[in-house]
Amino acid sequence: MLPAASTLERLVASAAVQAQQTIFARIAERLSPVLCEDLDTLLNVAPGDYRSALLRLKEYPPEASAKAIRAYVTRYQQAHELAANRIDLGLLNPGSCAIWRCWPNATTCMH
User: Fold this and answer.
1) What is the pLDDT of residues 24-50, one digit of tens each?
2) 71 partner at 20 to 30 Å CA-CA among 13, 24, 79, 93?
């Protein structure tokens, strides 16, 4: 007798969450102290401001204007430069790295 579909869905979702947490923990263990400090600085809020640099990086362009898109591309480049070639995913199974293939030069497990 097979378990109910809802039971299977719950088990699969739980396994996926656990796998994701394991992958992120493995990545975090291998981050250099310098990169960790650089990432931590993204959480700082400048005096007179109310948003951190991380929050600014996460923002979507407010409109489809050239100015807004240029600002968005600049933020993307800043994020890419912060982490590019500084995160090693080589310890992970290449199948686990499939989600990172859109981020070239960030890992050693992509081919």
Assistant:
1) 898 888 899 999 999 899 899 989 988
2) 24
